[in-house]
Amino acid sequence: MVNFSKSFSVRTKYGAMATVVFASIYVVGAYISRARKMSKEEHQGPRLTRSMSIAVLHGGQLALQRLFEYHEARADKSAVEIAECELKTHLAEQHPDYKKLQSVIGKLEMSGKEAQAVEILKNATAKARNEGRNHEAYEYEMLLVEMLIYKGDFKEALGRECLRHAEISDARRPLFKAIVHIIEGNKNEGTKYWREFNDLKEEFHCTPCMKESMEECQLHKLSTNFNEFEKVVDILKKDIIEAPLFSYPATYGEHKYAIPTHRTTCSSPVFFSDYWMVLKEIQNLCKNSSWSSSGLRYMQGKAETFAGNLSTQERIPYFVHYNDSIEFPCGFLKKFPISNSDRTDMENCKGVVVVSAIFNDHDKIRQPRGLGSKTLDNVCFFLFIDDVTLKGLVYHRLIPSKSKNYKIGAWRVVKVLSKGLYENPAMNGVIPKYLVHRLFPNSKFSIWIDAKLQLMVDPLLLIHSLVVSENADMAISKHPYYIHTMEEAMATARWQKWWDVDGLKRQMETYCENGLLPWSPSKLPYPSDVPDSALILRRHGLRSNLFSCLLFNELEAFNPRDQLAFAYVRDLMSPRLKLNMFEVEVFEQVVVEYRHNIKRGGGASGRQEVGLKGPKSKKTKRVGPDLLYVNGSCCGKCQKYLLEMWGESES
Ligand SMILES: *[C@@H]1O[C@H](CO)[C@@H](O)[C@H](O)[C@H]1NC(C)=O
Ligand SMILES: *[C@@H]1O[C@H](CO)[C@@H](O)[C@H](O)[C@H]1NC(C)=O
Ligand SMILES: *[C@@H]1O[C@H](CO)[C@@H](O)[C@H](O)[C@H]1NC(C)=O
Ligand SMILES: *[C@@H]1O[C@H](CO)[C@@H](O)[C@H](O)[C@H]1NC(C)=O
Ligand SMILES: *[C@@H]1O[C@H](CO)[C@@H](O)[C@H](O)[C@H]1NC(C)=O
């Protein structure tokens, strides 16, 4: 074989690629307790990282380092996206830093991006080999083998050429073989390679007992014990085989129609703190008994509609909160039809809740990704569905038809008997979207996520960086294009996102008449009047609850297109909402967006978003550019608004 092997062995002696196991007792202990836990929970348990398990095996500084990076990377999608960038960058360098590469690879694995990493590494290996850079080709291929193991492609991993070079002193060769054989149940082979690994790593003279820590020293002993090794591999095996939080039948198509985004840089627009620190901080915040979870008293009783069908004049006085004993109208003037056991579970959710809803079978259920290992124990995930959606889930056998308490992956699924509520499923969908604080009266923080989105970052990290650290009541993304409410209204009419154009007109006229102004710098620190409301993060308290109640009342009065009422409510309410309107780049970083379900035979036209357009029986009215024109003359009550928006007023 080529003589790069010699130089490589020398290299390793200086520690560049030293692979000596000295896992910590702490780590192995954590693994063992997790193993016990997993057998109880079966695959309900959180998906744990496989690289954490391999880190235990790998040993050496690299392994420890990866362990430290584990939570940062795993629960932080931005770190992972950067990792993909970094991987490509490192591979393109003249003198690749293998240590860095190794840790980047670890990050990719942690986020389930093994497939991408495998492709990138295969290309890099082939390229290096073609160009005669054999040492690099060998190193890349070793990384590739590791990634293939993570991915569960054991055969392919064992077949790679780099594992045949017995002349190279690299402890990873027998290590990887030992792992695969143990996973595949060949204990004898596994033991053989394990011994070889142990012999080989002795050559590195890198005894952990030289280190300061006694703990590491004890660990070294542990790591030389085959039974411990086998235990750890078993956990790795479980992680590989039970990787996803939930597996859907292929027909369900959870991941169809993702909408691509175009990120160009390696830098992240949002910073996330350390997972463990965040977990602790949020737990403490939620425990604080002096939390005034509401400060609002709500109107009770019965009405014709869910929110009481208040007129404009009836709604306006509630915008100013001046007396704690005033009862606010905030939905629930009709019974919200869910089962008692669901209601109890919802009331028991006392910290952070993530809420979503699928009405009219409009979306797929998508599982959150990047969850930290303690998140499912500390955050409730609730998904509201109606009968139509339920039928679809039963059809795909995601829910047994007779069962009562539905759980699909992370989501606790709650069926709403929506017949008695609103005629329009989209209107029913905004009940959990805006009245989270009433559905979960004991929760302290919430994240609303449209079912067209998949959460890619741990919800605790999101709440921490977008709400807690910003000292905000609410966090929401800016709209990618619009800053004035009127722009959104015109687009809504133009693209027929709402069928009742006269209603839109009435709504805008009402808002102009009652004080809505176009966005201008005088509204700062609010940077825009139009949000993308598919993701809403809230700290439940007086201001955000007031905002949510007022907004919901507007939705009932006009239509479920919540962007239109957003600035009107925000600007007129008092006390003022502390709002973090973040950049679209952040939004794109923390969620993946998918298209809604395509409805077969849904609408006549190409646009088939039935759920948003209201009942099919109503005729869709085409609009010209006439949203602005009332009885032939421009703009009616919005004349002043429009002049200001177009910059034509003198001010
Ligand atoms: C790898 O190489 C193939 C064939 O040359 C190419 O189509 C593909 O885009 C490459 N993938 C990456 C991630 O560079
Ligand atoms: C609890 O909340 C109160 C009021 O919001 C605050 O002043 C106090 O510092 C909090 N206590 C802890 C332990 O966070
Ligand atoms: C809502 O109130 C209006 C009058 O203010 C009335 O015409 C309408 O029928 C009411 N709607 C319902 C569903 O009660
Ligand atoms: C609040 O309203 C109640 C009932 O209307 C009244 O008795 C009370 O004095 C008011 N409190 C304040 C501070 O205005
Ligand atoms: C438009 O004209 C109709 C009939 O002439 C009238 O009933 C309606 O109130 C007018 N609308 C506005 C906003 O002036």
Automatic annotation (TrEMBL):
- Stored InterPro entries: TOD1_MUCI70 (IPR006852), TOD1_MUCI70_glycTrfase_dom (IPR048354)
User: What keywords tag this UniProt record?
Assistant: Membrane, Transmembrane, Transmembrane helix
Pfam families cross-referenced by the UniProt entry: TOD1_MUCI70
Span of domain TOD1/MUCI70 glycosyltransferase-like: 302-596
- Membrane-spanning residues: 14-32
Q: Under what name is this protein listed?
A: PREDICTED: unnamed product
Q: Which organism is it from?
A: Prunus dulcis
